[in-house]
Write a structure and sequence with these properties.
four-stranded antiparallel sheet; 13 helices; binds (3S,4R)-3-hydroxy-2-oxopiperidin-4-yl beta-D-xylopyranoside
């Protein structure tokens, strides 16, 4: 089967347009321009728009303490279509005292992202570092219970707002052992990681759940140990959807970087570059380009996040490891990434594959009668799953995808003769949802069912996986 490419990220809305047009109208215009089906490649002028043209997101780690810095914010708002909290969603920030939660800074990042059409990565639910003092002092079942409660509470708070969660961060040891890293969490029992993933799934079924680590940039004992864990999780039904490769890089890049991403993708998980930064030096731009090229070459590599905005914002001090200099100017590394994103092929798949079910939007029974309803079904190559864009209309078998005029939430979606009316116009949103231009309701699989034949309806947009669609 064709590999899947996450379809995300409308361009940033031009602020001038936002002041003149109502937000919905601007969203329609911008999204309409970027719903690039086969053969309509456009060069992006920012990292986010260029990545979106390739069906991917391009994000940055941000800190709320810099939100008052106008140079910083203008780069953030211009360039990126995904954000992650550099520190604000970590355990010490979100649960400073046992059972006392503080989400204010994390919420600020989420609301900024939402207001600007960006998706959000969640980082991180459990990690050996940046634990609050009270957790550092726990052990055994007391710590296990506190940790799982933490996962449940935080994932529940942010439910529906997080594209991908780093459920567990850095649980494997460096070096050649392939062992777990020793930590208070590890000492609660080897099953702590799967317990965390199960709790996260229960709390936010719509978020993709990732394992995230560093020094995993090639095929080595540490990445292989993680690979074996993911394979085991998939075999036993432990819920895992993605693996994050931090990619804090020096002056060289493993020659098997792409092959390593691909072997994880072949296990049936998405891969993401989650904390990219590269030591400044003769090779910096080349390494940034090579990482970008590798992600584009692996169809399940759904996005790239850089760990900061300007060199002087970086946790890596004097390494000057980022894409913008301290004054906010684009560096050679920036141009290398942008040019790489703009090169190569645009995704050509014309099916719409649902993120939750893995099944494709399908005209029931391949009937061409007006009023034939849409379902999901195993993806195949027949005409009743092939959509082409015409303006904002989505055509299939000579008809148009149609929500009955002024359809209320819960109404089934159908095909009808193309009319050009608003009830047949669809907007692709940055988080992968597809909303109807007339009502603003989103294409949704009824009851989040994943079975063949499940009804496709319109429902208020919440961004859960049963509302997200990927070109395939
Ligand atoms: C770093 C932040 O950038 C710093 O501001 C903080 O002081 C320490 O943590 N791997 C991770 C990130 O997963 O959470 C770390 O972020 C960098 C290494």
């Amino acid at each position: 089967m064709t590999e899947l490419i996450h379809w995300s990220g409308p361009p940033r809305r031009p602020w001038r347009a936002r002041r003149i047009l109502p937000p919905l109208a601007v969203a329609l215009l911008t999204a309409g321009m970027t719903l690039a089906f086969a053969g309509t490649a456009n060069a992006g002028t920012t990292l986010g728009t260029a990545a979106a043209e390739k069906g991917r997101y391009f994000g940055a780690a941000v800190g709320t303490y810099k939100f008052s810095d106008s140079t910083y914010m203008s780069i953030v708002n211009r360039e990126f279509n995904s954000l992650v909290a550099e520190n604000e969603m970590k355990w010490d920030a979100t649960e400073p005292q046992r059972g006392v939660f503080n989400y204010s800074a994390g919420d600020r990042i989420v609301s900024h992202a939402r207001a600007n059409g960006m998706s959000v990565r969640g980082h991180t639910l459990l990690w050996h570092a940046q634990q609050p003092g009270w957790a550092q002092n726990l052990s055994g079942s007391d710590l296990r219970n506190a940790a799982i409660n933490h996962v449940t509470q935080v994932a529940t708070h942010f439910r529906g707002q997080i594209h991908s969660w780093d459920v567990v961060n850095e649980a494997f040891a460096d070096g050649g052992s392939g062992a777990r890293r020793d930590s208070n969490l590890q000492r609660t029992g080897n099953d702590w990681i799967e317990a965390a993933f199960r709790a996260a799934r229960a709390a936010d079924p719509g978020a993709k759940l990732c394992y995230n680590d560093y020094n995993t940039d090639g095929i080595n004992p540490k990445s292989t140990a993680i690979y074996n864990m993911v394979r085991d999780f998939k075999a036993r039904g432990v819920p895992i959807d993605c693996v994050g490769f931090q990619s804090h890089l020096g002056t060289t890049l493993s020659s098997d970087y792409q092959a390593n991403l691909q072997r994880f993708a072949d296990l049936g998980v998405d891969v993401q570059i989650t904390e990219l930064d590269v030591t400044q030096g003769a090779n910096q731009a080349n390494i940034y380009a090579a990482v970008t090229r590798a992600c584009l070459a692996v169809s399940r590599c759904t996005g790239i996040t850089v760990w900061g905005v300007r060199d002087c914002d970086s946790w890596r001090g004097g390494d000057n490891a980022l894409l913008f200099d301290c004054a906010g100017n684009r560096k050679a590394a920036y141009t290398a990434v942008l040019d790489t994103l703009n090169g190569g092929a645009t995704p050509t798949g014309n099916r719409l594959r649902n993120d939750a079910s893995g099944r494709c939007l399908d005209v029931n029974g391949a009937s061409t009668a007006n009023g034939t309803q849409m379902i999901i079904w195993d993806c195949h190559t027949a005409a009743n799953q092939q959509f082409t864009q015409n303006g904002r209309a989505l055509q299939v078998m000579g008809k148009c995808l149609d929500a009955p005029p002024s359809a209320a939430a819960g109404t089934r979606v159908q095909i009808w003769d193309c009319s050009g009316a608003a009830n047949q116009q669809w907007v692709v949103n940055g988080n992968g949802t597809i909303s109807n231009a007339q009502t603003g309701l989103c294409l949704d699989i009824n009851g989040a069912s994943t079975a063949n034949g499940s009804a496709v309806i319109v429902w208020s947009c919440h961004g859960g996986a049963n509302q997200r669609w990927t070109r395939a």
